[in-house]
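Hi there,

I know you've been waiting on this one. I reran it after we fixed the sequence typo, so this is the corrected version. Both the input and the resulting structure follow.
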Amino acid sequence: MNAPAAKIGTASVTPASALIARLVEAGDPYAALGACVHITDATLDQIALATRRQRLIVAAASYAPPRLLDILSQDADAPLILRLAKNPATPADALARLMQGRPPARVRRYIAAHANAGALLPQLSQDTSIEVRRAVAGNAGAPADVIARLATEADGPIARAAAAAPQADAATLEHLWRTCDEWVRADVVAHPNCPPGILAEAEAQEDPLIRRKCAANPAIPDDMLMRLLADPDEQVRGAAVRNLAISGDRLDKAGDPSAKVRRLFARRTRLARPMIARLAADADDWVRRWIARNPDVPADVLGELAQDPEAAVRRSVSRNPACPPDLLSALAVDPQPWVRAGVALRDDAPDAVIALLLDDADHDVLGALGRNPATPANHLEMIARHPDKDVRRSVAFNPAAPPDALGLLAQDVYPLNRAILAGRGDLARALALRLLDDPEPQVRFAAAASLARAAATTTSEQQ
């Protein structure tokens, strides 16, 4: 994307019509495409699709408006057809149009896997290509009758996909359980529609894979899940701990000899106080890291974790939304910059803590302050002038960044910084207009999209 920049004038762009006129005058396909994402205009569409290169770009772009993809499908050659079939934004009508041209199996396979191909799936499920039928079986939108028909085929990949299909019904799952190998059976017992009788059989299986998938089933009976929490296999117990069908407060008596399983305990909410205390004192630092981020941990336990010898644990405390102001103050002077950076990200940090961190020279700390809405405006402008491009870029993400700081980023020598700035939804019109003249296509695209979004919103509010 290195087309020359299009020079655009300085008239007001508040109404969508004014913006359209300016972009048409410029004739820049990248800016036109950015605007097309939010406003509809036939002339802009023509500019965005004016060249062969642009049509190929749009056909593969997941952000492209469905109407442009529909236009491309009306007169598409082989490369365009393949890109449209792979593009997740291609609408159903366009996919149907592609199918009318009798595309090759590779294209049919992509269409069969497409989220918008629902109406085409019954036809594609009877395709002569096994790869196409496998793609249909793996499509989350495949209806129950299609899955049931495919499940009768003697094909391993189809069977596995059918066992995991969201619409697979109990009868199909029963058939797969009785006729397929352990890999398919494992997917069957993980399915929310799995019949209770099969779950009961699965719990008693010697194969830990079957029991693990059973423990992960969100529809598993409560008593069965509690038994699997005591399974001899750590992976089975881990799957049971991850299962949200059981409340965290019921895990209090489920201490585990495996550090991997205890890490999973530490990530659960609504844990009982004794369980929290036990995890906070765990010998495994990853267990302590996870529990230090848990918002249910009381302040006194967080205070202990804030003195942990492992810096990553202290960093987790600094990122915990329940961390009290006094602990943030203590962590703001931590010897490890990564811990101080965690505090610098907190928009609820006391003013004195922010003021203290403003004297920090570490790049991670300054980058965190650049993102923090609580950082004073004059300091955000200083950060926007920092010699390091990554530190400067942080200000582009700050919703409270002042106009002067954003103006500096609009002149940044690093294109990515300007592109991120141009994509801000609240970017001032004057600044977005300036970025429409940027030498980088991606910056012009983002600036036009920002202006079009604002113009479309203004038009909608006036109606």
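Quick highlight: The first helix runs from residue 16 to 26.

Best,
R. S.
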